[in-house]
Specification:
ten-stranded antiparallel β-barrel; mainly beta; Lipocalin; 8% helix
Length: 236
Amino acid sequence: MKIYYNKAKCSEILCLLILLTIILNACSPSYVPNVINTPLLSNKGELQVGIHTGLSGTDPQGAYAINDNIGLMLNGSFANRTSDSSNSFHKHNFGELGVGYFTKFADNGRLEVFTGLGYGDLRAKFESEIFNSSAQVHTRRFFIQPAIGAKTNIFDGSFATRFVFLDIYQGNKSIQAVLFEPAITAKAGYKYVKVVFQFGLSLPLSATENYYYQPFLFSVGLQGFIGLLTKNDKKF
């Protein structure tokens, strides 16, 4: 069976997607999604620390297993970008704390659900011949994040779906929004140190008012694993 496709039509769709990406990122976003932390914890005492860079800036992350089923996570996101050719800039600081449940299935499978709270502030300005926009806001965020994945000595892979309940405010004015943020994360290396790649989307489900946001998640990072094995757990 032969599959036919229209090259001109595919090129038009690709150009439209590129144009849409440029337009969405040409404004000063009031919300920038941070890297999704998917630790896939294994056992009590496991500690993970990582640093990531990407569209959200610099994102340090950590996770710790209190026991064989309960974990904590601490995440941050920082950016300070300026333009040499205009007055455009973007600065934000964000931190969050989460707690979650994790469990194993099969030999390498992991299932986890984390929830938590975060707070941050953002200042941005964008100037060009076509677009001009600015933002200066504070953000409160609550999230629920289920994820499923597999973990081995060499490779970890996971799919997470973060549901975000967002409160963006400045003075007495505020916007409440709900977003759905699916992401795929891949970690490759050896069991104690791995390179991390993540790609995802930030999709608005509802909002009390219109606002600019960053629609994509993309990052590359490095993650270290400490206390991965206990005396009674000699494998993943």
